[in-house]
Design a protein that fits this description.
With about 500 residues, the protein is α/β, with parallel strands linked by helices. The protein contains 16 helices and 20 strands. This is Flavin-containing monooxygenase.
Length: about 500
């Protein structure tokens, strides 16, 4: 362990860089000094495990600089977050004969000495006075994606680690889990696994297969920024298409080899002595313990069924029952009395579909009415698909416009801008135009301000509630019997099927 003060070592390194520039007058020498300082000082200070950098980066061999071979020991005086992050300090970027190194190690050194005033934008480094303690996030999860193709980042974990020990374990294969895995691949980190409880990737987009399941975010926005899809069939994508997109990304970025399917994580435990996470997994009724430096919990809240705990008698119901996230495709709704409990995002999609299945009666139990705006959806023409394929810049512009328009709407909620009240009046006028029945209208008007809860989108919710075989019930459920639902006002509704949504 190094006993010399960290700041003093940085100061000495900075002074040495200045002297090199003054004596030789070449910026190249300054960079060599910094690279050598990185190798000798910072790798050993910030890396805990044995890690090495590929030595095929040109400037390492030219400058006779290679990765350190000594044991990597953590400095307890540094922040834990700094100890637990893999250091990526060599970029291997060559341009006009110059080799660059991130100037984070010498925060007071002038830019024109470290990089040259004309080269800063080519590296894409964030800069501030505290960057010495903040640069690691940028190093590992570099947001400057446009530089990734040019930078030869070859960081990877050594293969002499213990069996069952990984740099990272990702839990879940939805957008967050796959996105994290793809990012690790791009950084050159291969020593990780992904735990998935289902037999397919997709997370909530694999679990939720109820009729009408779709995304309420426009397709061009609800996708990875680095993997746009110019062939979405609708403005708002349906569940099968989103699941197919995630399968495609999994194979394109070679993530499937890292995934352990049909596996559950049963316990996470931090081992302070080893500075590792102990992960207990279960597969085929067998438990196994793994270890990782980093846990990425990408489980998400929407792929697991959530049943109310304040309604007695659920286990006594003798009819058919299922949750939208655990849809039972064998249920026959024809001529059945159906109850849908809930009026959230999945309910406003599944209720119109069930109503069209020739049910004899559809009861919709509502606790809190949501604000609903029309869903302006349409099919994407083949011409549009070809246009986005051959001119990807158009899709990028569409994505950015969608993003900022929605950000402006969210800001209006948070800061109570006048546009929020304008939007609320527009939604009210749409409600009044759609629903003619005064009593029904009273039931669906929210009592909370527009934007205080999730705003839902649908163009057939209000019309469905007015169908002759649909009844909206706003009284709270008191209990469930073998073949009926009883509300607190004493009414009893006979049902054959219950859908939790």
């Amino acid at each position: 362990m190094y006993e010399v003060d960290f700041d003093l070592q940085i100061s000495n390194l900075r002074e040495e860089a200045y002297l090199s520039v003054e004596s030789v007058g070449r910026v190249q020498v300054s960079r060599i000094v910094l690279l050598d300082g990185v190798r000798q000082l910072l790798i050993n200070r910030l890396m805990r495990d044995r890690l090495h950098l590929d030595v095929d980066i040109n400037h390492m061999s030219l400058c006779n600089i290679g990765p350190g071979n000594s044991d990597f020991v953590p400095n307890p005086d540094l922040y834990q977050s700094l100890q637990d992050v893999v250091l990526r300090q060599y970029r291997g970027d060559q341009w006009q004969g110059y080799y660059y190194v991130t100037p984070i190690f010498v925060p007071d050194l002038p830019w024109d000495i470290v990089l040259g005033s004309n080269h800063f934008h080519r590296l894409g480094v964030e800069w501030n006075s505290e960057i010495k303690h903040q640069f690691l996030y940028w190093l590992v999860f570099d947001s400057f994606g446009r530089y990734e193709k040019r930078a030869k980042r070859k960081l990877k974990c050594m293969n002499d680690q213990k069996d069952g020990e990984y740099y990272a374990i990702i839990i879940g294969t939805g957008f967050s889990g796959l996105g994290s895995a793809i990012k690790l691949n791009k950084l050159g980190i291969d020593n990780y696994i992904v735990i998935e409880r289902y037999g397919h990737v997709g997370g909530t987009w694999y679990a939720n297969k109820y009729p009408g399941c779709a995304c309420d975010v426009p397709s061009n926005l609800y996708s990875f920024s680095f993997e746009p899809n110019p062939k979405w069939s609708h403005y708002f994508s349906r569940q099968p298409e989103i699941a197919e997109y995630l399968e495609y990304c999994t194979d394109k970025y070679n993530i499937r080899r890292h995934i352990h399917f049909n596996t559950n994580v049963t316990q996470l435990k931090w081992i302070e002595e080893q500075k590792l996470w102990q992960v207990t997994i279960q597969s085929n009724n067998q438990e196994k313990q793994l270890f990782a430096r980093i846990i990425i919990a990408a489980t998400g809240p929407l792929s697991s069924a959530s049943y109310p705990t304040d309604i007695p008698g659920i286990d006594k119901f003798e009819g058919q029952m299922c949750h939208t996230s655990e849809w039972d495709k064998t249920i026959d709704f024809k001529n059945k009395r159906v109850a849908v409990i809930g009026t959230g995002a999945s309910a406003i999609q599944v209720v119109p579909e069930i109503q069209q299945m020739n049910v004899s009666q559809l009861f919709v139990f509502q606790r809190t009415p949501p604000w609903i705006i029309p869903r302006v959806d349409r099919r994407v023409s083949n011409f549009e698909k070809r246009l986005l394929t051959y001119f990807p810049i158009i899709q990028k512009l569409i994505r950015r416009s969608l993003y900022w328009s929605r950000e402006a709407l969210i800001l209006s909620f948070a800061y109570r801008w006048p546009i929020r009240y304008v939007n609320e009046e527009l939604v009210r006028s749409n409600l009044n135009r759609e629903i003619k029945d005064i009593e029904l209208r009273k039931k669906v008007i929210p009592t909370w301000d527009f934007g205080c809860k999730r705003v839902l989108i649908s163009s057939d919710w209000y019309s469905t509630l007015q169908k002759s075989n649909v009844k909206l019930i706003t009284n709270r459920i008191k209990q469930i019997k073998s073949h009926s639902i009883i509300t607190y006002d004493g009414d009893e509704y006979p049902v054959d099927i219950i859908i939790w949504s």
